Structures are given as C-alpha cells and as structure tokens.
Amino acid sequence: MMNIYDGVVALDSKGQASVTLPEYFQALNSDFRYQLTAIAAPGPNLYIAEEISGNHFKVAGGKPGGKVSWQVTGVRQDAYAKAHRINVEEDKPEQQRGHYLHPELFGATEKEAIGATSPCCNDVAGHSGQHEPGQPALETQHKMRSTGTPLDISGGVLMITARPIFTFGLGKLGA
User: What is the DSSP letter of 104?
Assistant: First the structure.
C-alpha cells in the first residue's frame, strides 16, 4: 500500500524551496520516492537537495522565482498495512489457467471464460467436452498449435489481483 502526496512550490531567489509534509508523514510512511517537474521553464538541474527529514524536504537547482510540481510516495508502515500487505501477482488456480475473466478483450470466445459452464467443444468428433484441469478447450489448443503462438496459456499464467489503496495528501508549501 502506498500513499501519494503532491503539490506545487514556488522557488526563492536562489532557485530553492522547502516542502513541509503533514506532521504524521514519517510515522506513517517509509521507502520514499520523489518526482519533480519544472513548470513554465526547463529545469534540467532540478534536484532533491535534502531528503525527507522532520517531515520536510528541500528542492534546489531551479530557475529563481520559478515553480515546481512535486510528488512524494511512501509505503505505508502502520500496523494495519503491515498486517494486510497486498500481493501484486498471484498464480491462477490450475482450473482457471487458459481461461479469461473477459475473453472478448483477448479475441477469445465465451467458452474460454473463467467459470463457463457449457461444454466448450462437443462439436469436435470424439470429444466429450470435458478437459483435464487447467487445459484450454481443444479449439484453443488447436488454434495455438496452428498459429505457432509461443505462449502456453495452460500453464503458469498470472492474473493481477491487487487493489492498491492510495491516500492523497497535499503538503504545505514554503519557500
């Protein structure tokens, strides 16, 4: 789980600025990442002059009097977040491999949908419509062989199951 904080800061006459984050920022977050974008003028020398300490950080190297859009992310480190980490990827259960949540988005048929209950290939001579667990329909296996598709959709396919939670905050701006 990651929190995102962002804002715009005005640079002083030296091309520097200090950004103050909420007082709880460091207690709630760890593993910080920074993003800076100069506004209205190039900022090739823009950089983080001081990393986050005491819930603030410093920007430098910008055009005096210019503006900078900033974004800081932090991984949540509160007790709830530590106890409920989100797995970004999980292996599909064997019986779902070779099937899709939304087959139409992949040019597949409804027969290849996860949870499809109708037999998928009773029209194939000598086939009962039943498959080994994790095996795609015969028509899919045939299509894969005939097109030379390098991906074996019957094994090891991953499905994204993460639902990231973001908390947006705006730090206080200061020069």
Answer: G
